[in-house]
Amino acid sequence: MRYIGLCLCVLLMSGCATAPRPDDISALGALSGKAFDAECDRQAHSGLRPRRLLKDHVIRVSPLGVMVDPVTHVPLDEQAAAEYVQAIFCEAELLARYHGDGSQPRVLVYVHGGLNNYGHTDQKVNNDIAWRIMMDKDDWHYPVFISWNSAPVSAWAEHTFRLREGRRTNLAVGVGSAPLIFFSDLLAWVGRYPSTAYYQLATEKDRVLSGTSASGWLLTGSWRSANSSICGEEMCGFDLPPCAGRHTATLQANLSDYHTSRGNGMARGVAQVIGLPFRYTVGSFWHSTFSASAWDVMKHRVHNTLYPASDFDGRWQGINGGVAGARFFEMLISRGGERSYQVTLVGHSMGTMILNRVLSEYQPEWQQTSVLRNIVYMAAAASIEDSMYALRPILVPRGTESIVRDVDATVPLNRVNFYNLTLNRVAEASEMHVMSALPLGSLLISIDQHYESPDHWMRRTLGSEVNVLASLHILDAAFENASGEVVFKSFDRNPGMLPAVHGDFSLMEFWKRNVWQQQLPVSSEPDAGLAICEGLRLNRSESQVTAHW
């Protein structure tokens, strides 16, 4: 029955191949003139296809930073890239026609994070996630996935054999110098080992102490600062309120809780004890050598999306130099302005670093149009500082200082909402890899402690609950007079529920508004103090163990 209904749906949308009514045909604008209009109208006759293709939803970017065909991986020149992106816009506008009621095209752009290969993005199309997003009754969007190669082995190989001083060298020079690079990495591991071991111990200490009632002064200072930002100088104590949040005129934030079953807690504890000798030997070697080198190359590829290697070295021209992957956003802003698109940007982990650069690079264009509606950062690997300076001009446009925050006629059309989603802090510190043979903690902990060694608090990652809550006063001031919602939401860790680890955000229904927004009712009056709500937590049965301050 499901498939019969689906076929009927497609037939209805296609109009049985009859010509569309005159009022269905409008001037679709011109990225490439009348030929584009005719082609887009021609595609509108066919209706929506349940079986989605990669070319319908994927913008693939090569490690060199240029847009490539998602199947053949052949670089696209200016004309081919324009035609490719225009076809996506046609599909987005067709989806808006299907949902009807004068719907404006809604486009959701999702940028994945590090440690992903092209296949991870392809799954979102092949596994019908794209179709689910399109057909969502309340939160439908036309999804576009920015696919860039951030696979760790590929990144480490480029570091060892090709990348020198931030540029791609020829193969002979790369291979010839590879032994020197590898030997340098080995020496770096030896030199870094004391600090690597120290940070691992600090993470494990906080993880263990978070489950005890008399641990306040023993916890790392950043954890205590995060706690006091919500609960004040007296802290929250061992028994958290049913929910704790902070609500000011600028932003909303909450303190999350951690739950697990006794069996799961004991099993994880045993695994962590067994893996301890590996974590402090082989694991630390991997962490401070191979992983750190791969991280640097992943950042290099983030920059390439805006400024490809071909911009600086003629050896990597490809076809007419290729088109930078980030040019898709320029086309989106242009087309969206003409057709009144509603754009939502979603970035996971390192994907937020790409979005920060896109927001900064095209800042005037974002500001001059009303296409951007929502920005969603999930477990952001981008730093607090970079994010603040990229987001502030977008969230706090000039001339909005006196605008009333209530939804009424005084709110400008370019109201933009920002949602920052994070893991529970204990779940962040408890994340295991390779049966606990690698250092504990999520990618964000590795970035803050090992890969970046931030020289200031503002250089720490925005996707960490601890980092966000300890910086609330800075963020509150930075986003004062924001035109839309500013929400910092940390998810409780509950058995069998997402997100439990860093990578789970990509498995959630990341396109739904109720995933972004706070679920706790805060005081109707903006208040910098504690807001308590009841009945929103899971019942704490005897089989659950709660680990928190």
Quick structural summary:
With 549 residues, the protein is of the alpha/beta class.
Structure notes:
- The protein is α/β, with parallel strands linked by helices.
- The protein has one domain (35-397, 413-549).
- The chain is 44% helix and 12% strand.
- It contains 20 helices and 15 strands.
- It has helices spanning 2-14, 34-44, 54-57, 78-99, 118-126, 129-135, 152-161, 171-209, 221-231, 262-279, 282-304, 327-339, 351-361, 363-368, 384-395, 425-430, 443-451, 465-470, 472-478, 513-516; strands spanning 58-61, 67-68, 106-111, 142-148, 163-164, 167-168, 244-247, 252-255, 259-261, 342-348, 372-378, 417-422, 486-490, 527-532, 544-546.
- It has an eleven-stranded mixed sheet, sandwiched between helices.
- A hairpin with a 5-residue loop joins β1 and β2 (67-68).
- The model is unreliable at 1-31, 400-413 and 526-549 (pLDDT under 50).
